[in-house]
Amino acid sequence: MNVNPIQLFDAESSTYTYILAAPGSNEAAIIDPVDHHWERDLAHIERLGLKLAYILETHAHADHVTSAGKLRALTGAMAAVPSGCGISPAELQLRHGDVIRFGAGEEIAVLHTPGHTGGSMSYVWRDNVFTGDTLLINGCGRTDFQSGSAAALYDSVMNKLFRLPDDTRMWPGHDYKGQSVSTIGWEKRHNARLANRSLEQFVELMANLDLPRPKLIDVAVPANRNLGLPHGA
């Protein structure tokens, strides 16, 4: 049975948030919520008669602030974060191979997919993978800050994400071109940065992108390491 995630969008940072729920239980999980959309996200959850069990982060974001801390306080859900991202207030510090269980037998498999940041995680649920900033539709996340590494990202994609079944639906953490979902098979064959490119070619490509520094990085990263809450909260 195919069960689609609920995909929500923040136009300011082009961030996707996902709500995962399935028949047989009212428990749900949310991935990468954004601070100024907490009311919208809770409204979706309440409208569907769901109870939030887990709040997952793919990494400590540099372009927006998370609402994880606020949602946790309001719902009693547990925050689950990559262990390598320095998000110390979260209840669950995830490692590669962990499994998050919720609802009526639902499982989210945890993949450590570093490269965009040193701690970045992807999450596999049913026939879906949520790739954060590691793999984007026809692209990938930048690798020039927060312990980023082009070589590590290439390894994460080629040896973890691209080894998932071709028909796995790939849901990115961002999109800047109005795209919403892809498949692992399409990305393996067509991704403009990664398909048919050697490690050396990819590293050279990423080294020459010359991207501007994220405007919010000095605010967002410290806030996100505290689940989006003011320090001391």
UniProtKB/TrEMBL annotation:
The entry's keywords: Acetylation, Dioxygenase, Hydrolase, Iron, Metal-binding, Oxidoreductase, Transit peptide
GO terms of biological process kind: glutathione metabolic process; hydrogen sulfide metabolic process
Metallo-beta-lactamase domain span: 14-174
Known cofactor(s): Fe(2+)
InterPro entries (UniProt xref): Metallo-B-lactamas, Mito_Persulfide_Diox, POD-like_MBL-fold, RibonucZ/Hydroxyglut_hydro
SMART domains, per the entry: Lactamase_B
Pfam families given in the database record: Lactamase_B
Annotated PANTHER family: PERSULFIDE DIOXYGENASE ETHE1, PERSULFIDE DIOXYGENASE ETHE1, MITOCHONDRIAL
Family: Belongs to the metallo-beta-lactamase superfamily. Glyoxalase II family.
Protein name, entry field: MBL fold metallo-hydrolase
Source species: Massilia horti
